[in-house]
Every structure is written in structure tokens, then in C-alpha cells.
Amino acid sequence: MTAKKRRRPQRPRPAPEPETTQVEEQEEQTPQRRPFGSGLLAGGPSPMPPIGRSLGNGLLAVVSSPILLAIAVVVPLLAWLALLAIGFEGRPSLLVDVLALPPISTYFDLGTGESLLSLGPAFLVFIGIALLIRSLLYALLAGMIVETLEDGRISRWGLLRGVSAIPTVLAVNLLSFSLILASNVIFPILGPGIGLLAAIGSLVGGLFFLGFAPTAAVRQQRGAVESIRRSGRAAMLPGSRHVLFCALYFFVALPVVVGLAPGGSQVTANPTLSGWIFILAASVLHLAFMAALAFRWIGVEPAVPEEPVRRRQAQRRPLASRQRGRR
């Protein structure tokens, strides 16, 4: 008798994995390119605080500080008295933007200087003095606002930190002045419609890239160039919706505040009581937006890269390493 051979049960063979082509491997390794600016308006997780919370904290920081409220009251009054002393004859409603952020404040200085002195050497001297005074004021305000957001108070230390940011704020004002001059020379060639949109876009872009620079200089004590660079890097972080923030400020500061000012076209040396109340409220609003920018920078500061991100090199490295491995 022959013993029957027992057959072992055969295990099922695993199905063969689908072969991937070289093109598919390259598509998997290469990150998808997003159109320029797609991350600026899109939502999503972001280290930068939301716009509503930023404005709320900024307004709370201003109205809870007696010193900041006093500045919002005193500065428009002193500016109006100084303009009357040098012979200004114009609309008091323009004072609603005396504490506006650059480049809107730069427009205020240019319009005031032109109405006083017309174009000429005296006009340039007036603009230079105005830029220096405004840079000193905004640097001190940046230091006081940062200390208010950090500690809830204002001391000599906040003023000293603001003094150290004067070169950065002066550079921001000079860049805003140059941007306005360039837009007045170049954009009228495009026509009344496109030229106006381009001019507004350039002003929004100026605030977009330069808005964080004073706070960055106060907080990190770096030079003007590095503070402006870091301001631009923070503005370009995806998910921050910083473009919407800047566009909202321009919408509030120009058509809303200027359009609703009492006695908008009235030329007088004595503004009405309602006009003064509106001017003071607009000044508080400008300081609130300035404090909101500082609040957003404080929230996003740890996430701002020290060096600019090189996207093209980051996309090419996986392909190059893959080709070396095949060789």
C-alpha cells in the first residue's frame, strides 16, 4: 500500500500592487501650487487672531486707558489750533483723519500742506516737519498701546520702547509718502476708473505690508529694515485675512468717517459741538484699529519666520533626490 501524500492547503496569494508611473510619483511628491494670494483671503487655522476679536480688544485697550483717551481728545484740538495759527482756511471735518494710520494720514498732510502753501519748497518743508512730528507721535503711541495690551497700564518703560521705534515709524511714513507720489504719477495714465482702483489698491497694500512694523519694532527692538520685513512676512501668513482687515479700515476711515462727518463741506474756524464729538469719536476709532494691529501682531509673532520661505526650492528637492536614488 502506498501512503497518500497529504497536500498542504495553499495560501491565497496577495493581489499584485498596482504599478505607479513616474508621473504619478512626481505628482504625489510635488506639492500642489496655489495661485498667488490664494491663502490671503481663504479661511482656516491661523495663529493670527480673528478680525472681530482683534477690533474688540483694540477698542477695549483704548477706552480703558485714560492716557490714550486724552491723546484722542487733545491731538485733534492742538492740530486745529496749529493750522489756524499758520493761516489754514479749510474744513474742520478733515480732522477726522488727523490720527489715521499711514498712508491715510499722509494724504491728510499732503492736502493740508497744498491748501496752505501750494506746491513749492515751502510745501516740502511743511511735509518734512509733519512727517517728523507724526513719526514721533505714532512711535510713542505704539509703545503705549503695546504696554497697555501686555500689562494693562502705561509707564515710562512703554514710552522708552516707543522712542526706540522712531526710525521704523519714520521709514514707514517715508515709504507711504513715496507710494502716494508714485501712484499720483503712474496710475492716472490707466484712466479714471482703473487708475482709481489701482490707487486704492496701492494704499491698501501699503498698510498691508507696513502695518505691523511699528509694533514689531517695539516688541523685538530690531532695526527699521528688519521690522518692515517681518511685518510683510506676518501679513503673508495664510489664513490671516489681513487683506480684509486693511480693506475694512480703509472703508471705515474714508467713505464712512469722512462722508458722515457733520458740516463736511463747511469752511469755518469754529467747528460745532456735534462736529467736535464726531472728530473725537473718529480719533478713538483710529487708535482702536492701531491697537487691533498690535494685538494681531502679538498673537502671530511666534509664528513669523526669521527667513523668507523658498517655495520653489522646496518643490524641486524631492524630485532631485528621487532621480539620484534611481541612478
Question: What can you tell me about this protein's structure?
Answer:
- The chain has one domain (46-302).
- With 327 residues, it is mainly α.
- The protein has 14 helices and no strands.
- Helix 8 (166-186) packs antiparallel against helix 9.
- 34% of the residues are buried.
Query: What gyration radius follows from the Cα positions, in whole Å?
Result: 28 Å
The average pLDDT is 80
Oligomer: single chain
CA-CA gap between termini: 61 Å
The largest sheet is: none
List its salient traits.
327 residues, mainly alpha, globular, disordered N terminus
Question: Care to give the gist of this entry?
Answer:
With 327 residues, this protein is an all-alpha fold. It has helices at residues 22-29, 38-41, 51-63, 66-85, 104-117, 121-151, 156-164, 166-186, 192-210, 213-220, 224-235, 242-260, 273-300, 311-326.
Secondary structure topology:
Elements: H1 22-29, H2 38-41, H3 51-63, H4 66-85, H5 104-117, H6 121-151, H7 156-164, H8 166-186, H9 192-210, H10 213-220, H11 224-235, H12 242-260, H13 273-300, H14 311-326
Helix pairs in contact: 3-13, 4-13, 5-6, 6-7, 6-8, 6-10, 6-13, 8-9, 8-11, 9-12, 10-11, 10-13
